[in-house]
Amino acid sequence: MSIQRSRPEKFLGKIILKVMTRIGMNCFFIGIYTFLYIMVSVATPLYADIYVYADKEGVLHFTNVPTSSNSSNYKVYIKETPKNSLESDTTNLYDHVISEASKKHGVSFSLLKALIKIESDFDPRAVSKAGAMGLMQIMPENVRRLNIKDPFDPKDNVMGGTRYLKQMIHRFEGKLHLALAAYNAGPKAVEQYQRIPPYKETENFVKQVMKYYSIFKES
Predict the structure, then answer these.
(1) pTM as predicted
(2) 176/169 Cα distance (integer angstroms)
(3) Could you tell me the pLDDT band of residue 30, with boundaries at 50, 70 and 90?
(4) Which of 30, 96, 117, 163 falls 20 to 30 Å from 15 in CA-CA distance?
């Protein structure tokens, strides 16, 4: 036996159906928006500004995290901007600068490129925890001594860094492993031990630079 519904019941049923449909669609779109937001958040890299601060002696201090007691004295030196994802492979981006420095100072192109790969991975705005800056990670105390005006300028940085590496090569009579160790740990440490200092960071640094030196020579 079929049951015939009255007009009010049919009207109410239609209203309920419309409400349920709208609720379902809203939940669907909310789910889509949430998924897209999460994907964009994960895929989007974080960027940091670089700050500079001059102490009482006029020495410049650079960092991307001004958390010291002098944080209020830091000023934005470089405003970071997102990089195009298509430009993520920067391995050959500074070859012209490296080549120029290589010819000017008589240091192997492949060696310089390997050192830059390990020091900054070709990021001209890299800043280490110790305050080393740019492609060749120049320490603040060496910026003036190497006559570097802007440590975050690729050419200025590479020219100064190459000049310093050349000095280390001469200082240690062409012994490349000692020159690289001195570049990383300082020449006094190398002279003290008369070999690569027993620092894990320095030992790994020399190994990795020599590894990429071989790779770039063959490429």
Answers:
(1) 0.63
(2) 6
(3) very low
(4) 30
**Do 70 and 136 have their domain in common?**
no
Q: Is 9 a catalytic residue?
A: no
- The rounded radius of gyration (Å) of the Cα atoms in the chain is 29
Measured between alpha carbons, how far apart are the two ends of the chain, in Å? 86
Q: Tally Cβ neighbours within 10 Å of residue 200.
A: 7
pLDDT tens profile 40-55: 444 444 445 666 666 7
Look at residue 72 and give its three-state secondary structure: helix
Q: Which residues 6+ apart lie within 8 Å of 19 measured at CB?
A: none
> What's the structural domain count of the chain?
3
Look up residue 181 and give its two tokens: 């160790």
Give the Cα separation of 7 and 1 in Å (integer): 19
Range of the domain at 104: 91-218
Contacts of 65 (CB under 8 A, 6+ apart): 48
Per-residue pLDDT for 180 more than 70? yes
> How far apart (Å, rounded) are the C-alpha atoms in residues 81 and 216?
30
In a domain, 59, yes or no: yes
- Do 199 and 185 contact (CB within 8 A), yes or no? yes
Q: Provide φ and ψ at 48, rounded to 5°.
A: -135, 145
Q: Where are the alpha helices (DSSP H) in the chain?
A: 7-43, 95-105, 109-120, 140-145, 154-171, 176-185, 187-193, 200-218
Which among 152, 144, 150, 149 is positioned nearest to 120, based on CA atoms?
Answer: 152
